[in-house]
Amino acid sequence: MVDTLPVSFGYENIKRVIIPENELKARIAEVGKCISLEYSEKPLLLIAILKGSFIFLADLCREITVPCEVEFMRSSSYVGNSTVSTGNPKDIFGIDKDISKYHVLLVEDIVDTGKTLVRVTEQLKKLNPLSLKVCTLLDKPERREVDFSPDFALFIVPDVFVVGYGLDFDEKYRNLPYIAEVSL
Ligand code: IMP
Ligand code: MG
Q1: In the annotation, is 112 catalytic?
Q2: Which of 112, 139, 159, 168 is catalytic?
Q3: Given 36, 40, 50, 60, which residue has the most CB atoms within 10 angstroms?
Q4: Tell me, what CATH number does 137's domain have?
């Protein structure tokens, strides 16, 4: 284990490291290769769902060895320091290109109930992409409330609230270089 837990002020809630930095890096490199093979000769558009996927997207796209373009959108159903979805989602598409010319790969931080991705994929399908797949860093299948399976899921995590590597609790901890469990 290369990661040591920070003990400085503000990190008291970090309980344990679930996925250390070196494991994240190795798995992302592996999946980057698969994506490169699958999308060679295809116009690839990565659409990252902010904010949680920003670090994953940055590392994943650098492991993709075929040409690709990047767009961002926002989707949020959490309010403040809640760890339970409000069920009242807001999606803000910042995509100003015609996605019907692209094979779209949605990049997400974590699939929990699955509601976000069901909703977002339904909306994106209406824009007629050449194909649409989902790549998530983390998957919490135990929490699923709707029928949804990501095409690429890099790590399965238990039913605990996780932070780091882009994921937040009350907007904090996104900068941790590993995935950790927080005690709430
Ligand atoms: P879903 O719609 O329930 O699948 O929720 C997906 C979104 O909830 C993710 O994109 C995250 O932003 C957030 N989320 C779910 N579980 C966690 C967690 O354990 N830590 C941080 N964010 C989470
Ligand atoms: Mg998210």
Answers
A1: yes
A2: 112
A3: 60
A4: 3.40.50.2020
